[in-house]
Amino acid sequence: MNILKKPELLAPAGNLDILKIALLYGADAIYCGSPKFAMRARVGFDMKSLKEGIDYAHSLGKKVYLTVNAFPHSREIEDLKKHIEKTVELNPDALIVADPGIVDYILKNFEIPVHLSTQANTTNHLSAKFWQDRGVQRIVMARELSLKDIALIHKDLPDFQIETFIHGAMCMAHSGRCQISNYMTNRDPNKGACIQACRFKYKMYALEEELRPGELFPIYEDEDGTHILNSKDLCMIEHIPELVKAGICSLKIEGRLKSEYYVATVVRAYRKAIDQYFESPRKYSLLKSEFKSEIEKSANRGFTTGFYFDQPENNYESSKAEASWGYIGQVINYNENTRTLKFEAKNYLPINSELEIITPRENYQYFLREMTVKGESAELAHANNIIEVKFDKSVPPDSLIRIKL
């Protein structure tokens, strides 16, 4: 009998605060990195905060994987080698690498697990076996693969770790290797500096292929322009059984540039979905639409299952991320004696707002009838204000608060 193993839930973190939030809300592991030689040049980590994050995760029995997955040029190699040496000294659980030469260099010079980045574009079992034979322990599969493709790779290499993205923004380019940003602004996507040109608004009417004159491929346009380059967001929360049965050991959420609210909301929903499936597949089936509804409360561009069920259809509609709820604040503490909740506002907050308090385990509905700012009754609050409200349930610090839009 084939006993299914619960997969790791792998969350993104763009800074130390988000790393801690992601772990608090249910992630088993974090992937992150410094801006240098990673695929996100705008992340908020330095070596000191990465070390603190790794030590914090390890204190909880959880893991941190550091990204070194940019594609460097020859003039950068000596600097990269020094960076890798410093990165290894932080004691991460693995390095995520894309460039074959860098993979080889790390495996020959350091005793640390290497995970092959999705940027390496692994699409078949022969490539996977090639990397396994060289000492790579895990592969983040190309996003262009279906679940059938992944299952075939797992069948041929049952002991090899397979990781895949299961939620978040989708790059329109093949395995993310896009050069539009480079052409437009000289900011290289393969060095973490992508301007996300696929999200821009373009004015076009139709494409005509040179050898097929008169045969037009229409490009539909609304008042904001056309979105042919812009994908919906990936969402597989209603397909946990299929992901697990395909042999995927790590379910990865995209979003190192996302807020703590986004990361907490998405991680918490997937944590509940995965746990519910392994506790009761039948109950998961009944609740999976609720899990998806929870995710829809965070900003998104509409959802797609990507290539998991073969070719996606109607995948390009709008570049604007929308949500039914917005992030409003983070809990500082709860006073049991006065039954008062204190939180810091992150956005404009008027009285008579419909709020929801999100803890790692529960959600609480709350209608804001009165609040105090700096000890005075207030009709509205602004970002960075410290707010106090009466609330009859104890809420842990770092719980998040959202507002109905």
Overview of this protein structure:
The chain has 10 helices and 24 strands. By secondary structure, the protein is of the alpha/beta class. The strands form 5 sheets. An 8-stranded parallel beta barrel has the order 1-2-3-4-5-6-7-13, surrounded by 6 helices. Strands 19-18-24-15-16-23-20-21 form an 8-stranded antiparallel sheet, covered by helices on one side. Helix 1 runs parallel beside helix 2 (47-59), helix 1 (16-24) runs parallel beside helix 9 (260-279) and helix 9 packs antiparallel against helix 10 (281-295). It is globular, with a radius of gyration of 23 Å. The protein starts with 7 loop residues before the first strand and ends with a strand. The mean pLDDT is 88.
Key structural traits:
405 residues, alpha/beta, TIM Barrel, Elongation Factor Tu (Ef-tu), domain 3, 2 domains, 8-stranded antiparallel β-sheet, 24 strands
List the helices and strands and how they pair.
Elements: E1 8-12, H1 16-24, E2 29-32, H2 47-59, E3 63-68, H3 77-89, E4 94-97, H4 100-109, E5 114-116, H5 125-133, E6 138-140, H6 147-156, E7 161-168, H7 180-185, E8 206-208, E9 216-218, E10 221-222, E11 225-226, E12 233-235, H8 240-245, E13 250-253, H9 260-279, H10 281-295, E14 303-304, E15 325-335, E16 340-345, E17 349-350, E18 354-358, E19 363-367, E20 372-373, E21 376-377, E22 380-381, E23 386-390, E24 400-404
Parallel strand pairs: 1-2, 1-13, 2-3, 3-4, 4-5, 5-6, 6-7, 7-13, 12-14
Antiparallel strand pairs: 7-12, 8-9, 10-11, 15-16, 15-24, 16-23, 17-22, 18-19, 18-24, 20-21, 20-23
Helix pairs in contact: 1-2, 1-9, 9-10
